[in-house]
Amino acid sequence: MINNMKLKYKLIFFYIIVVMIPVLIVGIILTNYFREGALNRAIDQATNNVEKIKSQLSSKLRVPTDISNLLYFDEDLERLVTTHYPDALALTKAYLNYTDIRVYVLRYREISNIRFFIDNPSLVDDMSIAPLTPELESRDWYKKAMQTGEIYWMYIPDKEKYFNSPRGTINKLSLIRQVYYRESGKSGILMVQVSQDELNQMLYQEPFDTLIIDEQGYIVSANDPQLVGSTVDDFDIGVDVQLQSKGVLKTRVKDKDSYVIIDEMSPELSSSKLKIISIFETKSILSDANNVSKLGLLIVIGVLLVALVFVYTISLLTTNRLLRLSRQLNQVALGNLNIVSRIDGTDEIGQLSRQFNYMVASINRLITQVIESNEKNSALEIAQREIKLKMMASQIHPHFLFNALESIRMNAHLKGEKELANIVRLLGKLMRKNLEVGRERAPIKEEVEMIRSYLEIQKFRYEDRLEYEIKFDPRAAEIMIPPLIIQPLVENSVVHGLENKQGTVHVNVSITLDENQEVQVLVTDDGIGMKEERLSEIVDVISKVEEEERGRIGLRNVHQRLTLYYGEEHGLRITSRSGEGTEIAFSIPVESEFKS
């Protein structure tokens, strides 16, 4: 649609798209920027306050944790609570002699009370140490502490009251942990109650509504002390803060748009977590930012008027230059390749003018190159025909050689030289296969026949000095592999295996198809083998891309072809030990295609 519009309409269209709408968006963004800036400052302040409270809370809760650790390993406390007392006098003396709990409560302002509950009927409740009762065992906090033996922090509300004295009510954040005494086999529950005044003092000067809640949702501390003991649901926050670990949420609190900052802390050595929540109303923060909207509207109107003048001017200048370039393109379309564009300027139209000149010059060069290329192709085609004729002529010589070998074989056979006739037949068969190496692939069975022919000829030559065995999996007979890929390995084993060794050398060839659908080829001999230095030198030579005169041409040729066709992992693997022999192996994936 845009391509079919006239230029002046395009410019107006793009003026609306590129100028008006963006300027309006900028105005909106500018207004929102100040609004967001005010909100971000409030969020940053609330977040910093939450971080400060988190640090202070962690410091205050470290004291009850350290005291619980001391009492956990307190042998005097263990002896006091696990001893069975025959009468009240003995129990009273024991209580009077143990003063650690009372000292901790008086010394540390962070602690309001310490309680210890254990199953010992001879104990009485002295507001610090008390015997375990069925009512206590039914409490959720007791069950949770007894299940895992870990430290838990939770708020125990008024409904958990079970003492006759007002001092016995819990109604505050408490550390609860199981204490197990190995010698007696008894377990007790240690409860360290945190001072509510200490918790509230942290939040007293907070500018926003700030809460600390436990995992059950109870408010353990707040800058409004009246909220302590209620649940976070009573505060009417529009989201489930129990599902949030940390973040800034925008929601409605008590039917007012508000932001909620949530952070989470795990007191030292504790498996439970506490959340710090800060809440502030959006409207109270944005009152100043709304005044920016009027200024933004004036800026938008001024920018739009200035832009309109620029659009009209640019449209006149651009149209004239484009019309000149259009006329020059028409000249090229009519076949005039000698035209030169002279539109000035370094903008896009000026670049088009220069590219136009470059295009005309390139067309002229391409025409010249096409003419030269056609001449070269004609010459190449003539040369290829000559090569083909020479190749056809060269086939006469192998044909003559095969006929001569066949005549020798027949003559030897007629004279009773059957062994010699068989060797000549094998030699002719081997030479024919070697001359067919120009084929891209050949079945494995043909490669095996060539190996067998080669080994029979060598057996004829070396007699008892050479013994061989070929193990061939019939399932791999029709699998196609590169020709002459195994024979050079067998030749290497025969030639180098017989070097400097007295007695018989055994050459074994194994070709199998494994369960991974890979052909495994293994050629071994029990010749003199090689030292590690010589083996490393050979491996280095066959792996080099460039051929060396002193290198092993056969092994290198096989290794390079294998890696070229199937990848590095399928190249030759050579192992050898001096005096024991040499082993050469490689694998070919059945389903793999050549990589070149």
TrEMBL record:
Q: Which residues form the Histidine kinase domain?
A: 485-592
- Residues crossing the lipid bilayer are 12-34, 295-317
Q: Does this UniProt record's set of keywords contain Protein transport?
A: no
Q: Which SUPFAM superfamilies match?
A: ATPase domain of HSP90 chaperone/DNA topoisomerase II/histidine kinase, HAMP domain-like
Domain HAMP positions:
316-368
Q: Which InterPro entries match?
A: Bact_2-comp_sensor_kinase, HAMP_dom, HATPase_C_sf, HATPase_dom, His_kinase_dom, Sig_transdc_His_kin_internal
Keyword vocabulary terms for this entry:
ATP-binding, Cell membrane, Kinase, Membrane, Nucleotide-binding, Phosphoprotein, Transferase, Transmembrane, Transmembrane helix, Two-component regulatory system
Q: Does the keyword Phosphoprotein apply?
A: yes
- SMART domains in the record, alphabetically? HAMP (SM00304)
UniProt-annotated location(s): Cell membrane
Name of the protein in question: histidine kinase
Q: Which Pfam families match?
A: HAMP, HATPase_c, His_kinase
| Catalytic activities | ATP + protein L-histidine = ADP + protein N-phospho-L-histidine
What's the superkingdom here? Bacteria
> What phylogenetic lineage does the species belong to?
Bacteria, Bacillati, Bacillota, Bacilli, Bacillales
